[in-house]
Design brief:
Bound molecules: nicotinamide-adenine-dinucleotide
Number of strands: 12
Distance between the termini: 42 Å
Structural class: alpha/beta
Helix content: 40-55%
Radius of gyration: 20 Å
CATH class of the largest domain: Alpha Beta
Number of helices: 13
Order of helices and strands: HEEEEHEHEHHEHEHEEEHEHHHHH
Low-confidence stretches: none
CATH architecture of the largest domain: 3-Layer(aba) Sandwich
Shape: globular
CATH topology of the largest domain: Rossmann fold
Length: 366
């Protein structure tokens, strides 16, 4: 049953991690290491069943292979899940035990934060292994990735506008931004700096007030964001918001935002394309976060990170070219770009091999 799933998804390795003394039950899934070590965060979640945890880690790790490949990184895809409630099951011992399992992979898997995990948890993991990114800046880590994700989203937006309208003047167009969290608020700020008209919403009214006061945005109720007359719908909250209920309401010509898994399913993606709405594939647009943490491997440098975000423009342009070349929706073109890169680069024989990640310029803290 498990091997059947691995065959369907194409995973290389799945590691079940158990430490009875500290109550650790975790799964590390290494999907593909053709391009390099598998990088992807660790999620802590109170999964109801082990099967649910396994399904999640298999799905997420495969997603990282595609995201890292399209981002142009020399990294494969992996992910880990810890079965537990982040509000009560966390402890130093738990994360150190998990860190030992990460270490035992010898660099084939590199972890980071994901849902339910913060930088303090990663500090414990870091005590047991160097194969972790998103560590604190005092150790040479990269800190909060959100501003980079927002800046990367802006690059993706410019490429998308250019493809759709033949110019990339962000300020000429209007935007419906859903979600004003770490990424959304920063994205609104970048749009405002370029003179754009912005509609915003969030389920947290304090954040909405801040966007109105600080960035001159116009507030709408959470459910009204699908109806506003804006050129671009920008999902920056949850996944699945582009679905058969919301799509007929959208007036936007472009969908471009930072949220993961924006399309409820592939059929919606096909319908988006049929309606002539240009969808900027989410995992290509929001790769700024993973690009940022990936730089910790060679020694983190903020300048370099900002330059790297600009490659998102190029990646999006390439996706749109493939969509036109092959007559397919953009969400499929993104997958095709990833698969083509893995195939062609995978055939190269690198003289030095891919080796173990180096993690230069970092300070081990205890
Ligand atoms: P966040 O939790 O800081 O912000 C999410 C915001 O969405 C919150 O303010 C929340 O109140 C709001 N929200 C939730 N449900 C809503 C609804 N129904 N309507 C309107 N607003 C709603 O998260 P974030 O770090 O800003 O990430 C936003 C999205 O971008 C997520 O999908 C995340 O997976 C994705 N992403 C983030 C990064 C990053 O660097 N932080 C990188 C890649 C992808």
């Amino acid at each position: 049953m498990i091997f059947e799933q691995l065959e369907t998804y194409g995973h290389e390795q799945v590691v079940f991690c158990h430490n009875k003394d500290v109550g650790l039950k975790a799964i590390i899934a290494i999907h593909n290491t053709v391009l390099g070590p598998a990088l992807g965060g660790t999620r802590m979640w109170p999964y109801k069943t082990e099967q649910e945890a396994l399904n999640d880690v298999l799905r997420l790790s495969r997603g990282m292979t595609y995201k890292n490949a399209v981002a142009g990184l020399n990294l494969g895809g992996g992910k880990a899940v810890i079965i537990g409630d982040p509000s009560k099951d966390k402890s130093e011992a738990l994360f150190r035990a998990f860190g030992q399992f990460v270490d035992s992979q010898g660099g084939r898997y590199i972890t980071a934060e994901d849902v339910g995990i913060d930088v303090n948890d990663m500090e414990y993991v870091y005590r047991e292994t160097q194969f972790v990114t998103g560590v604190h800046q005092v150790h040479g880590g990269s800190g909060d990735p959100s501003p980079f994700t927002a800046y990367g989203t802006l690059q993706g937006l410019m490429a998308t506008l250019n493809h759709k309208f033949g110019d990339e003047e962000v300020g000429k167009y209007s935007y419906a931004v859903q979600g004003l969290g770490h990424v959304g608020m920063e994205f609104v700020k970048l749009l405002k700096e370029r003179g754009a008209k912005i509609f915003v919403t969030d389920i947290n009214p304090t954040l909405v007030e801040r966007a109105v006061e600080d960035h001159g945005a116009e507030a709408v109720a959470p459910d009204e964001i699908y109806d506003v007359d804006a050129t671009v719908y920008s999902p920056c909250a949850l996944g699945g918001t582009v679905n058969f209920d919301t799509l007929p309401r959208l007036k936007a010509k472009v969908i471009c935002g930072a949220a993961n898994n924006q399309l409820a399913n592939n059929e919606v993606g096909d319908e988006v394309a049929k309606r002539g709405i240009l969808y900027a594939p989410d995992y290509a647009v929001n790769a700024g976060g993973v690009m940022n943490i990936s730089l910790e491997i060679d020694g983190y440098n903020r300048e370099r990170a900002m330059r790297m975000m600009r490659t998102i423009y190029h990646n999006l342009s390439r996706i749109f070219e493939i969509a036109e070349r092959d007559g397919i929706p953009t969400y499929q073109a993104a997958d095709r770009l990833a698969e083509e890169r893995i195939e062609t680069i995978g055939k190269l024989k690198l003289p030095m091999g891919r080796g173990t990640p180096r993690f230069q310029g970092r300070v081990r803290g205890h």
